What does this fold into?
Amino acid sequence: MKKPRNAIARLAASLPTAIAYCAVTRALRHQHRFNQLPSGLVVLKLPPDASVSHYQAAAKAYINVPQTSRRRIDPFVVLIGSKKDDGWPKDIADWLGHALKVVVLCNGDNIVPFAVALAADAVVDVEPATSRDVISAWRMGSRGPISSEDAELLLKIPFPILDAAARNGRSAAEIVSRVTEAGEGLAEGKEGTLKATSGPLLDDLVGMGEAEEWGRELARDLADWKQGRISWSDVDRGILLSGPPGCGKTMFAKALANTCGVELISGSLARWQAAGYLNALLKSMREAFATAKEKAPSILFIDEIDAFGDRAKFNGHNEQYCTEVVAGLLECLDGVDSREGVIVVGAANHPDRLDAAITRSGRLDRHVRVSLPDRKARAEILHRLFGDQIDRPDLESIAARLPNRSGADLERLAREGIRRARRQSRSPTIADLEASLPERIAMPREYRWRIAVHEAGHAVVGLQTGYGTIRQVRIPEWFEADVEAQVDGAVEFEIVRTECRTLTRIEHEATTLMAGAAAERMMFGHHSAGIGGKAGSDLHRATALATAAYRSWGLGDRLTFMEETTASTAGLAFDPSAHRWVSELLASCFERACRLVLERRSAIESLSEKLLLEGTVSGEDVSAVLLAADADVDRRNSRRGAKRSARAAV
It folds into this structure.
């Protein structure tokens, strides 16, 4: 029987474990007795330098697959030490009494006792993982495309390091690049230390905004601290950077260290956890802080710091373990031993999952959100990658074709274009970069017209309810062949909070969010599924807003605080009264949006036509279109009034 999808997801979350699983599956593919019967014993002799912890997890996953028996098959994996008699039982019943299925893992040169060999269904040599195992494991996690060349490169990375680097959302090429840049010390499994003698400076970064300014101030403060002009208490201790993968958080840490002229020590929970169990994890983490203190002034970069989690949300049998891990980090951040001279930079994709104590004053008390680069920033990144080899106007046109792409995505495209030119022993041209771009599929006119109507509905109703002023409205012309979830269109509002967030204000916001679907219904008789279906959609944002109003902000019919985040809607499933209140509020807002779009149909049609023609309309042009449409309606109404008056006179 096949492994359940949720089990595959858990297994594929760790790329090295998934690779080990593929190797174990290959080794046991001919062991029909062990695979088909409800009980059995096999001995797996691991390849040299195998990461035992990953093979242990892989073996547990393998023998936990439902078999022919209706009874649950509890996995029992035994690890045998390198010494001849280390771990082997005197009585084989000591193993067989634990579970129905037993897998014994040992080194390839370990001698299997005679009694164990007799009892075992098989003694199997596990061949080293291959690039095909890497490709299979990569696909198990739905990580996107991977080439045979990238698979070979990933295979050369030690499993503990690969576990730390292979976070979801990173391409194979990015993983290899990150490990390579970390230096030989990281490749050998040692604590990563990067010399601040080369690489980017803060001035070389694009679109980092507040983080860049904070970094420059820190560089001045560190210089003053080293000269004795200020005390350590006057220096910021750390910063939390949050944002989507590839937006430049790791690059910022490198540039910060280079600008400050100090060394960068890198670490992560995954890397420290690769050292072993809890005591080994805590020891590895403390060693990283000790290394940073020895090299002070220095910067300690903790990647994916949100993996530590929030103690308030821990539950189950791992609660104590996870709590002790977070407590260990807090102790390192400001425990009994001072970390004078050490700046901590944490990077997170999901800052809302982080324990609040980590970001309190004196720890990572500055939080800066880093967004994906806009069109101007994308053009600047490409210009810095290509220099003057390609004209700026050409790069700007390429940047316009790559919305929602990260700096890492742009670097990958640039590398491909430069490689193409290098193969032909010439300088790169705009044609090389265009050849590296993903395939574009022209969007049908009917599809674009629906999107234009949807976005025009948001824009017109947003202005009418006072939701905000408009920077621009845009709709795409193409589908990107390599992007699964694409943003079909957007209205960029500039929102200035000049009033309290009352229930009336919430209703204005929700009405604006529902206006796209209302405009579709007005024009086509029904709305599409584009209103929802994913996090960040109109329906998700409106539901989350209404949920927060009811359960957290006390704006419903009860005054109780239930949850802190406005992004969570999961609690509605267990709270019928909240579900009913939110549903009624959104239904009311949708009805109001339908009335408003009907009143401004002429304006919505005019703006939709301009969007269909131009693709992007500025805020000023939106206002001009709406004024012209309203003036036209007024003229038509005036003529109708004059005709009615004339008929009445006759």
Q: What stands out?
A: The chain has 26 helices and 15 strands. Confidence is low (pLDDT under 50) at residues 66-73, 183-198. The first helix runs from residue 5 to 12. The chain has four domains: 5-140, 182-369, 375-437, 445-619.
